[in-house]
Amino acid sequence: MTDEFRISEEERERLVAEDVDEFPFDTPKYTTYLLNPAINLSQSNRPEVVGQMSDIIEEFRKEHPDGTFEDSVEFYFEEYNGEKRLEKSAEKAYPMVEKMRNAFEQIDEEMTRRYIRDLVLFKTYEGFDIQETILRKLGDMYDVEVRRATASEESKGIDGYIGEQAVQIKPNTHKDNLQEEFDAPIVYYDENKTNKAMTVDISELTEAIDEK
Fold first, then answer.
1. Quick check: pTM over 0.70?
2. Are 122 and 114 in contact (CB under 8 A)?
3. Cα angle 195, 198, 199; round to 5
4. Is 148 helix (H, G, I), strand (E, B) or coil?
5. Beta-carbon neighbour count of residue 56 at 10 Å?
6. Helices H, strands E: what count in the chain?
7. Cα separation of 49 and 37, whole Å?
8. Which 3-state string (H, E, C) describes 191-206?
9. Could you read off the pLDDT of 100-121 as tens digits, one per residue?
10. Please, which of 122, 170, 180, 206 could form a disulfide with 174 given CB 3.0 to 4.6 Å?
């Protein structure tokens, strides 16, 4: 017998709710790929709308250790006004579904082509070149020339220069893993994995510049 196996999404749903005819309900192909982001964007599945489901299920299991999926549904409906909560969630989500439907209808072949170029070319370069993004931003802030470090300078722990000031540019996680010390101040960044926005901490750089 193998030490590893895979359970598909479809099989997982079947195993959990095998005795309940209503679940999982059939949906046309690809529709869930639109419904999921619509629900997330509308925030219609937040705890304040549908309830803190993990806590509710935990409570159900404590009270009904032998309970089935169908029992958990009845518990949610009876103890947490589940029917009304789900209806409120659907009412909150559907306007976003409409917005996404309208937006999708505006997508043509040319827009698809331009988006792919941006995704493959710019977004890829942007992802690999966080240092240059931060250096350029700092150059604008301090109104000075900036440049990337040479290979020789990188070997000394320098990532770039803000005017004449050498800097290191590191992710926030680097704070907990400092193994070498260099004279150059560190600019820390924290990247939002969802939208690629960044929070940048320049406190060390500001202190170094103020001391000059």
1. no
2. no
3. 140
4. strand
5. 18
6. 11, 5
7. 17
8. ECCCCCCEEEECHHHH
9. 999 999 999 999 999 898 878 8
10. 170
- Yes or no: say if 187 and 168 are a contact pair by the CB < 8 Å rule: yes
d(CA 10, CA 32): 13
Locate 137 and state its tokens.
């931003």
User: What is the pLDDT, as a whole number, of residue 91?
Assistant: 97
Residue type, 77: F
Residue 108, amino acid: D
How deeply is 125 buried, as exposed, middle or buried, from its count of CB atoms within 10 A (0-12, 13-18, 19+)?
A: exposed
Q: Are 71 and 64 in contact (CB under 8 A)?
A: yes
Q: Please state the domain extents for the chain.
A: 9-106, 128-211
C-alpha span between 55 and 66 (Å, rounded)? 17
What one-character-per-residue DSSP string does 132-145 give?
Answer: HHHHHHHHHHHTS-
